[in-house]
Amino acid sequence: MTLADLPTHCSNEVTALSEAEVSDLLDQISGWRLTQGALERRINFPNFHQTMAFVNAVAQLANEQDHHPDMHIAYGRCVVRFNTHSVRGISVNDFICAQLVNAMQPTSA
């Protein structure tokens, strides 16, 4: 499975990915790591205003996808974490949303 194979919108009909599938997809997506059963990315910003603009954009994306991350916000940074509670693991929905977040903020690490 590759990132290009994934649909562009989250689905309610998902299952947990295997460790091998998660590892394969994680190798294909920039900036994300596996942390405590979730996909996680820390993104830095020059100021609080840009941090909050990003947080609001992620909130809009999450509502559109009906897949909501945990976010930890501080001055100049935001940590975004995706996992799928209903499958108690990581699903394709998490990778779909991670790709969409990367499209909003492609060069921050």
Automatic annotation (TrEMBL):
* Enzyme Commission (EC) number: 4.2.1.96
Q: Which UniProt keywords apply?
A: Lyase
- Region forming the signal peptide: none
* Entry annotated with the keyword Lipid metabolism: no
Catalytic activity as recorded in UniProt: (4aS,6R)-4a-hydroxy-L-erythro-5,6,7,8-tetrahydrobiopterin = (6R)-L-erythro-6,7-dihydrobiopterin + H2O
Where, if anywhere, are coiled coils annotated?
A: none
Query: Per its UniProt entry, which superkingdom is the organism in?
Result: Bacteria
For this UniProt entry, the molecular function terms from Gene Ontology, in alphabetical order, are:
4-alpha-hydroxytetrahydrobiopterin dehydratase activity
Q: Name one GO biological process term.
A: tetrahydrobiopterin biosynthetic process
Pfam families on file: Pterin_4a
Family, similarity comment: Belongs to the pterin-4-alpha-carbinolamine dehydratase family.
Protein name (record): Putative pterin-4-alpha-carbinolamine dehydratase
